[in-house]
Predict the 3D structure of the following.
Amino acid sequence: MIPSRASFPEGFLFGAATAAYQIEGTAFGGCGSTHWDTFSATPGNVKRAEGGSIACDHYNRWPADLDLLREAGFDAYRFSASWARVMPDGVTVNPEGLDFYERLVDGMGARGLRPFLTLYHWDLPSALADQGGWINRDTALRFGDYTETLLARIGDRVETVATVNEPWCVAWLSHFLGAHAPGLRDIRAAARAMHHILLAHGVAVERMRAMGQKNLGIVLNFDHATPASDDPKDVQAAAVQDAIFNRWFTEGIFRGAYPAEVLEGLEPHLPAGWQDDMARISQPIDWLGVNYYTRHIHAHDPAKAWPHDRDVPGPLEKTQMGWEIYPEGLKGFLTRIERDYTRGLPIYITENGMANDDAAGSDDAIRSDFIARHFAAAQAAIAEGVNLKGFFYWSLLDNYEWAEGYQKRFGLVHVNYETLERTPKPSYHALKRALARN
Ligand code: IFM
């Protein structure tokens, strides 16, 4: 059974999260081309070559989607704006794009939903990708202009702003592992993207502070790195992965320094003068968003170049993504982040959820159980003094799961991609019961 609202501290926020490219549909409203449109149009990158041109048609169906949030009893909605919708070529403003986000935040206000905005959830305008995207320092500066333009229009109505969603995915997954757009596998590109995405965060924070915007944060994803054995080499392989995935970002932001374990591999490839950006990257923020899904098991692999890592399959029950269900990792990260980095700053779980092969009307009891176990992990962290203020389920709707296309279903609400009909799943109703105010 999902722990009830009443079993959380007074004022704890419950929400659901989505992202622009995954639900809106780029075919509408004068949205520009993004690197995900071209990446998905290139054979071999995305399952069934699916892209985001229609997605869930949220651009047109947003009122009904906001109704679903309100009817579930959520307090807040975490959504992202698309840079390419606001500025189709990355620079020139599209008034229709700004109008759309204004309608959306006003729609939230009308339904009593608190808007949690993310500025960048991966839909980089193709015109900026042409100039090197996140490999190019200039993209970070252009991001500041986009930030200012969007917030000049809707900043007075959003409750919090996150600069970037999951910089590890923007940089490492996309430029070193090659799994996401732009699909590079190059250590020099990866090093630059790892730095420039944090610089973009710093630039955006600076610009927003100058505008008087409040409640600024960033959303990081955390993946628990478990060593495959007690062999010191496996223990070291897991420590290096922890440093790449988790500590690069927390230590860059909260300490103004990158971990030595990662600099060992990346320093030769970082842009000259990177140290001069660290003060900007580590400006104070007001809250931290934590996305948590799973753990990975790491072994040392001498046949591979740095970071000499091999993933080992784990024994735990897995989701449709093949990710092990490991709620202990959520509690572990929350207590570690509070102790080592945030020390009293508000933390929100900005994403947690699971994909399941749901048909319309089928039972997704496994999802309700997943939520129950992760709510319990969050409560255990609160009991140990973590200043956790809210929990957003990923995702409201089944949607475009990037390189996996549309078949991985994370939603509380089923989407029929032929008709675009929405059907709340049993987990939606279970969560609604848990959130009911008595
Ligand atoms: O769908 C993604 C989301 O865009 C970012 N966080 C992880 C989710 C599930 O993979």
